[in-house]
Amino acid sequence: MVELPLEEGQSWCLLWNHSVAGFTVRDCFVWQSPHLRLQSSHQPDFAAGLGHFQGRGQMRVADEGGYLIDCIDEKLPDNRLILRVGARTVDHRIKIGDQIISLSERAAGERVGIQVVVQATAN
Hints:
It is a single chain. The chain is mostly beta strands. It has one helix at residues 103-107, and strands spanning 11-17, 24-32, 35-43, 58-61, 67-70, 74-75, 80-84, 93-96, 99-102, 111-115. It is built from one helix and ten strands. The radius of gyration is 15 Å and the shape is globular. It starts with 10 loop residues before the first strand and ends in an 8-residue tail after the last strand.
């Protein structure tokens, strides 16, 4: 569906509007070869399905409001995030640098895999 370059140590975020409360949630990942890791989650509130779990990152009040759970450092199996893409009201989207790609515009209701694929380099 979409291919984007990702450098060692580069991060990207999955943004989405919570279907009950309507606020934007931000889950951020980082590529640290050979693993894609969940780095942080910004949640403006602890509505249905959101929150902090003891032993999984550190929670603090975020500067921009809400809560930030950082230092999660959770490896994603097979370097892949499996996601059921929400409707346009949920608006799942990837933000990498200044670029934002709406997954909901392309695949609402579909199961997708967001995966890091390491390209062989030529010598």
